[in-house]
Amino acid sequence: MITKTTAYKIYWAGRYLERIEDIARASLCALHSNTSLDSLAKEYGLNSKEEIVIYIKKSFEFLREDIRGFADESIMIQLNNLGFIIDSNYTDMESYFSSILTSVMALGSSLDNYFVERKTEVRISSQEENEPEEMRGKRNLT
């Protein structure tokens, strides 16, 4: 069983990871279709392509804070790798967004595996197991 706080962190980590993936994919599509990143930025409510990078960096900060609440060392290493890529030089925008997308996909797969491995540790009790002992016998008689 996980706490409400941990569940909240897991949910929001997924959302921030999804946001980074979404804007990286959209940026790559814009670059491949010769659409300006400034016009893509406006679709996201941003003012310029520089704000796309700021949006990614802010989303990553929130992602990192949430993942710190539940992840193990291997997840944190991948998270740090994503951070290095996000903070890298982005003069070649296509390479920048491709690297982010690759790292996001790897982190997402690792998170999936992280939770699948822990799923076997969680067992939900039946209703009968949760009832007081005196109630179990009475229910069987009726």
Summarize the structure.
With 142 residues, this protein is mainly alpha-helical. The protein has a domain at 18-29 and 48-118. Helix content is 77%, strand content 0%.
What are its keywords?
mainly alpha, elongated, 7 helices
Written overview of the protein:
With 142 residues, this protein is mostly helical. It has a domain at 18-29 and 48-118. It is 77% helix and 0% strand. The two termini are 33 Å apart.
Q: Structural class of the secondary elements?
A: mainly alpha
Q: Summarize the biggest pleated sheet.
A: none
Q: Point out poorly predicted stretches.
A: none
Q: Tell me, what's the shape?
A: elongated
Q: Mean pLDDT across all residues, rounded?
A: 87
The proportion of strand residues reads under 5%
- Sketch the topology as an H/E string, one letter per element: HHHHHHH
Alpha plus pi helix count: 7
Cα-atom Rg, whole angstroms? 22 Å
Distance between the termini: 33 Å
Task: Please render the helix and strand layout as text.
Blueprint: H1 4-32, H2 37-43, H3 49-67, H4 73-86, H5 93-119, H6 127-130, H7 133-141
Helix pairs in contact: 1-3, 1-5, 2-3, 3-4, 4-5
